[in-house]
Structures are given as structure tokens and as C-alpha cells.
Amino acid sequence: MYDIEKIRADFPILSREVNGKPLVYLDNGASAQKPKPVLDAVRMGYEHEYANVHRGLHYLSNVSTEKYEAVRGTVARFLNASDPNSIILNSGTTEGINMVAYAWAMPRFEAGDEIVLSIMEHHANIVPWHFLRERQGAVLRWVDTDAVGNIDPQKVIDAISPKTKLVAITQLSNVLGTVVDVKSIIDAAHAKGVPVLIDGSQAAVHMPIDIDTLKPDFYALTGHKLYGPSGSGAIYVAPERLAEMRPFMGGGDMIRDVARDQVTYADPPMKFEAGTPGIVQTIGFGAALEYMMDVGVSNIEAHERSLRDYARTKLDGLNWLNVQGQSSDKAAIFSFTLDGAAHAHDISTVLDKRGVAVRAGHHCAQPLMEHLGVSATCRASFGMYNTTAEVDAFVDALELCHDLFA
Ligand code: PLP
Fold first, then answer.
1. Ligand 1 centre from 96 Cα, in Å?
2. What angle do CA 73, 235, 96 make, to 5 degrees?
3. Cβ(124) – ligand 1 distance below 6 Å
4. In what order do the strands lie in the sheet with 87-90?
5. From the CA of 258, how far away is ligand 1's center (Å)?
6. Do domains 4-27+296-405 and 39-294 have the same CATH topology?
7. What is the pLDDT of residue 294?
8. pTM for the structure as a whole
9. How far is the CA of 349 from the centre of ligand 1 (A)?
10. Pocket flag, ligand 1, residue 93 (CB < 6 Å)
11. Would you name the residues annotated as active-site residues?
12. Could you tell me if 103 and 92 are in contact, meaning their C-beta atoms sit under 8 angstroms apart?
């Protein structure tokens, strides 16, 4: 049984009030709250076990190295990736995708080469490709959503041309909540010899991920959305792509030897982890993934899907609310506007007065906003600890907005 009260008790922040009301935290899509095991791991890391990793021969350095390195295996287990050495630890998805752009794509793209993207991408999976467009003449090919916010995998496959060097696509939209059938896209792209990068920042939070079945070339994660510390994350890189990548950042830890006129590099994954990493953040990230696996990612998925259905029924009853993205296969993420002149920022301010935290703006997805014909939306994004009572509190606060702004 999914013991929601026990889970909520693990997240100390959930018992606080905001503006004199119980906190209803619905901004999980931006960043999730942290359970006690993560807070404990971070405290322990700094209070009792702190030293730099990899370089020391003393006790504390060995302890922190062991704990840090163990996270590679935890991420691999979480993603069902058989080889921990295919996991590069980093500060999150933005770093992961930029690494792919610099380390893998830049050396192989020529003017006119194409990247296929969906219109739902987060800027983290757009701007690095604009760098290739600006600097090397790469062409970005966009695949739009349909009327309910779905991406038809066949449209992505059809957008692949002989010039396509990469498909870069999200598995779950941070704005619409839509789940993309990335397995069909990966299989078809591979049949055409085209590698696929999956932005898993949102998907990995809401559903089990199986790298050994999906077989992506790159799969990017971000720790702070997975109930871990900010500044933590990882990217899975398939062995063939790992062998093709040149180093991205240079510095300590990623080398074998450095001389005046030459340098040789460490083997992957260290080759792609230059400098002192986010040691304690990464250890906390490992604790977050362990926590999710203890609860069971399938259990989290089932809980959130029932919240989604409950919220959907309630929101459908508000005929002045415009919810963007009505796919039947979506996570509990609702982006909306209200009929009338109220701006998303005003709506979120009113909700905040009722203790309800949502995000307002373009959600780092401006091409999608343009496609939807809106400049901004409010977004309520649910997590593993949210409840149907919180859906009710959210709906009550929306009704207050409607009374104020209608
Ligand atoms: N991709 C998606 C789909 C996201 O939702 C986000 C964060 O909002 C990112 C990428 C970027 O993640 P980060 O800022 O942690 O690097």
C-alpha cells in the first residue's frame, strides 16, 4: 500500500505554513522537495565525512570517494543500465546536454546537418543546438504537437532525413505533461543509423525508466527534480557514443598525464568529469534515488496517475479554466490560463496567498508557448507526496481567482 502519510512525514518542509495556510507544494516540475534521508546524507557528508574525492590517500577522502562513486551504480540501477561506467555524474540536465553538444555533436556536424527536435523541448534541449546552428550551420527541424498535445512518433521518424545527425527529444513535457513514445522513435532512428538523445529530466521523476530496453544513445537526468539536491545529476551515454566523444571540460581528474606539450586523458566516465564535482550534492542525489526505489517508482507512478485523474475531473468542471494539453497519456502536470484578462503571474500570486505554490511564465519552453498561442501559463505539477486534499485546496484557490478576476 502507498502510505502517503508516512511519505509526507519524510519531507519536513511539507508541514510548514505559507502565508498562514498549510503549504500545498505544486511546483515539483521546477524542483522537488527533499526527504529526510537526503537531508541526512547531505548533513553527514559535510559534518562527518567531507573531503575531496579521488585524489587523497587519507581516510576521509577515501570515505567520500567511496560514497560518491557508489552513486554511479545507484543511478545505473535506477535507470536499469547494466554498466555503471556508462553514467557520467554532473550538475544536471543542462550540463549533460551541453556536454553532448560540445563533446559529441560539434566535432561531427557540418553545415546543413540536421537535428530533429519536438516543439515541447525545454530550452536546455534547444539552446545547445542553436549553438551548433550559429557556429556550424546545423539546421533544427521541429515536430509539432497535435491538438491535444501529443507528439506522434511517426512524425518524428518522418522528419529524419539523410542529413539528420541526431534526434533530441524529451520523454515527458515539463509544460503539458505529455509522455512521448520514445521507444518507437529510438528504434526507428537507429534503423536509419541516427543516434537519439532523450531529455529524461521529467520522465524519470514520474515513471520507471529502463535504459537496457529503450537503448537511447544519451539519457539526461537532473537530481533536484528527483527529490535530490540542486547541482546534481547524471547522463547515461551508450558505449559507442562514449568512445566517440572528445573531452568537454579540461582540468583535474579527467587526465592520465599532463606534460608541457601533450596531454593524455583518463578513461570514461572520468574523462568527462573535470574538476572537483558536487561531492555532497551527488551523495544526496544517490540517497534520493534510493528513497524513490524504496517507495517503488511504479508505486509513485500509480499514485500520481490517480492524482492526475482526480485533478482532471475537478479541473474539467471549471469551464473558465483552459488547460493546455489533454493527452490521455500525461503526467500530473497541468498548465492553464483563466478566461478573462488575468495574467499567469497574478493567478500564481493569488494562489500563493492561499499557500498554493505553482509556477507561472513560459517554463523555459518559448517555442511551445508560441505554438500554443500563449505568452505564459500557470503550471501545477504534482509529486509523490501530493494528495487529493491538496487538489481540492488548489481548486478552491482557483475558484477564488475566478471570483477576483472574472
Ligand atoms: N529539461 C526539462 C524537460 C526540464 O523540465 C528541465 C528543468 O526544468 C530541464 C531540462 C533543465 O534541468 P536543469 O535546470 O536541472 O538542468
1. 10
2. 145
3. yes
4. 87-90, 233-237, 218-222, 196-199, 164-170, 114-118, 139-143
5. 35
6. no
7. 98
8. 0.97
9. 23
10. yes
11. 364
12. no
Angle, helices 344-353/388-405, rounded to nearest 10 degrees: 120
pLDDT for position 303: 98
Q: What is the CATH number of domain 39-294?
A: 3.40.640.10
Task: Tell me the Cα Rg of the chain.
Answer: 22
Q: Where are the domains of the chain?
A: 4-27+296-405, 39-294
Residue to probe by mutation, ligand 1, list 27, 91, 93, 381, most atoms within 8 Å of CB:
93
Ligand 1 nearest-atom number relative to CA 173: 3
Please list, residue by residue across 117-154, b when 16 or more beta carbons sit within 10 angstroms of its beta carbon and e when fewer do: bbbbbbebbbebbeebeeebebbbeebebeeebbbebe
DSSP H helices, 122-202, are 127-136, 153-158, 182-191
Mutation pick for ligand 1 pocket among 90, 94, 95, 227 (CB with most ligand atoms within 8 Å): 94
Q: Whose CA is nearest to atom 12 of ligand 1?
A: 93
CA of 127 to the centre of ligand 1 (A): 12
Spatial separation of the C-alpha atoms in residues 23 and 304, rounded to whole Å? 18
pLDDT at 57 over 90: no
In three-state secondary structure terms, 140 is strand
pLDDT value, residue 291: 98
Candidate from 122, 333, 335, 368 with most ligand 1 atoms within 8 A of CB, to mutate:
122
Question: For residue 341, what pLDDT band results from cuts at 50, 70 and 90?
Answer: low
What is the Å distance from ligand 1's center to 222 Cα? 7
Give tens-digit pLDDT for 203-228. 999 999 999 999 999 999 999 999 99
174 lines ligand 1 (CB under 6 A): yes
- Mean pLDDT of the 14-24 span: 97
End-to-end CA distance of the chain: 42
Is 222 near ligand 1, meaning CB less than 6 Å away? yes
pLDDT in tens, 70-94: 999 999 999 999 999 999 999 999 9
Judge if the beta carbon of residue 281 lies within 6 A of ligand 1.
no
Q: What is the mean pLDDT of residues 101-115?
A: 98
pLDDT at 56: 75
* 4-27+296-405: CATH number: 3.90.1150.10
pLDDT at 340 over 90: no
For the stretch 156-198, pLDDT in tens is 999 999 999 999 999 999 999 999 999 999 999 999 999 999 9
